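Predict structure. Input: MRH domain-containing protein, 264 residues.
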Amino acid sequence: MADGSMVFLLLSFLAVSVSSLEVCTKLDDCSCKRSNGKIISLRNIDGKSGPKFTGIKQKSKAFTFSWNPCTKFSIPSHCNDVLLCQRGSGDLDYPVAKTADSFTIIEGNIVLVYEEVTGFDNKQRKGVITLKCDESKYPGNFSEFIETGSSSSFQYAATFTSKCACDDGCPNVPAGGKGSQRLSTGSILLIVFIPLIFVYFIAGMLYNKYHKGTNTFPEMIPNHSFWSDFPFLIKDGCVFTFEGITGCCVSLCMRLKGDSYAKI
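Output follows.
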């Protein structure tokens, strides 16, 4: 019997040890990084100017909730700088969550636990949202919130099912509003081209000064004759292009009017 108890305790310890290896480290109020390096981020579905999700029902009561994953919002009646707000009877609003406390993994789901908030009625409220992965749900949907607790301290729990609850399911957009964007080909060419121009002129001037003995300006500029004629070449190119376009437009107008000259 004693041996059986020891085996049970050992297996329990191993199970706890294995499960404890799978963690999701908080990055900010709406994202965490798992032990396998994958990111769970809700920033892609965040409402920047107000709560993204509203009218979320509470089970067995006529109360509703508003939730925004990342950006805090305010509602005139007592919900100031919150992420989760409860609307009660008489259109009174109660803050439920302002800051994420932790992201834990329970049965494969990420459980987002918020820090407890004290409302204007001196009662404590805490939000708990289970993030359930479903690639077919975007931006996602809520179950009803379930209330537990005593007369002075309440906890509100619900399940949010979304593609963004999956590993790397949504882009991990950094705080600041804009997503991570790759540089375009044109931007890369400009970044490379502009420094090369500076190197070309500086190196050319040093070469002309110390190797050829040119000490006057603008003769020190590399390929001085070409660059001195460059503005006039641009002018000639623009005039040629403009005259060509003008000629085509005139010819087209004459053809449309039926006044084109007969070909010789």
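The two ends are 116 Å apart (CA to CA).
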